[in-house]
Amino acid sequence: MQQRKLGTQGLEVSALGLGCMGMSEFYQNAGEAEAIATIHRALDRGVTLIDTADMYGPFTNEELVGRALRGRRDEAILATKFGNVRGTDGSFAGIDGSAAYVRKACDASLQRLGVDHIDLYYQHRVDTKVPIEETVVAMAELVRAGKVRYLGLSEAAPATIRRAHAVHAISALQSEYSLWSREVEDEILPTVRELGIGFVAYSPLGRGFLTGRFRKPEDLPENDRRRMFPRFQGEMFAHNLKLVEHVEELASGKGVTAAQLALAWVLHQGKDMVPLFGTTRRENLDDNLGAVEVQLSADELRRLDEVVPKGAAAGTRYPEPGMQSVNR
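Below the sequence we write its predicted C-alpha cells.
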C-alpha cells in the first residue's frame, strides 16, 4: 500500500483510508462480524488509517472499532472526532467546541476505543459559538498530555483553518471531496496547501452513488439516511445517474470499476490527498483498494472533467440543516 503524509508534523498514513461510520449507523450494514472482518482485511491489505467518530451509533462505532483493533492497535493510525453532541437515544443536541467538552469527549472516546491514545483527533464540526482558538488550545493540551498525537479539523472554512493552525499545527482537514463535490477546490484546498495541512476526502464515492450501485431511489433501503439527501431524490437522482453512467462508460473502457475510477481521480488530485472510503463488506473493500493501481493520463483526467464537470451534480450534498454546519 502506498503511503502519504498528512501535514508536516510527521503523520504518515496509507493512501486510502477506511471510514467506519456505516458499520454502525445511517446506512444498511452487514453486521458486526462482517464489519470487524472488513477492518481486519483492511489492515491485512496495508490500510493504516481507520476513521470513526464518537457520534456514530451513537457511541457504538468507537466500541466496534476498538474491538476490531484489539491485538492489532500498532497496525492502525486511529482517527476519531468530537463536537457533534448526541444523546444515547440518538437525538442530536447541537455542536460543542468548548474546552470542557473537548476534554470530556476525548476521555470518553479513549474509554470506548480501549486505547491509551488517539492518533488523529478531529473537531467534527466547527462550533460557531466558541472561538476556534479556545477549542484548539484544549485540543493542544490533549497532545501535551499524550492522549492525542495529531490534530485535525472537519468542514472548516479557510479563515477558521488559519486561526486554528496559528494556535497549534493542524495536520489534516477532513471535508467532502469527489468528482461531484468539488467546492473545496475554490478556497479550501489552496489554504491547506499553503499551510502544509493534509487533506482527507470523505465520501469520495459520492456516498456510494458513483459506484453505480443505485439505479433508482427505491434501491436504497427504507431506513437508509441517503433517502433524505437531495442528490438521491426525484429528478435530481435522474440527473445525477446520467453523470454516473458517463463515469461507468469511461471505467469500462479502461477495464476498471466505476468505484476504482472515482477513487483514482481523487488520488490523482495531489500527494497530500487521502480518500476515505466507507464500506461494510470485504468484497467492496477489495474492489476499492484496486484504485491505488489505476493510473490516469492527462487525457483521461480531462475526459473525466468533461463528463462530470465541476458543479455538475444536481442538489446539495446535505439537506438544508446539514448544510448550515459545513464550511464554517
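The CA atoms of residues 298 and 304 lie 10 Å apart.
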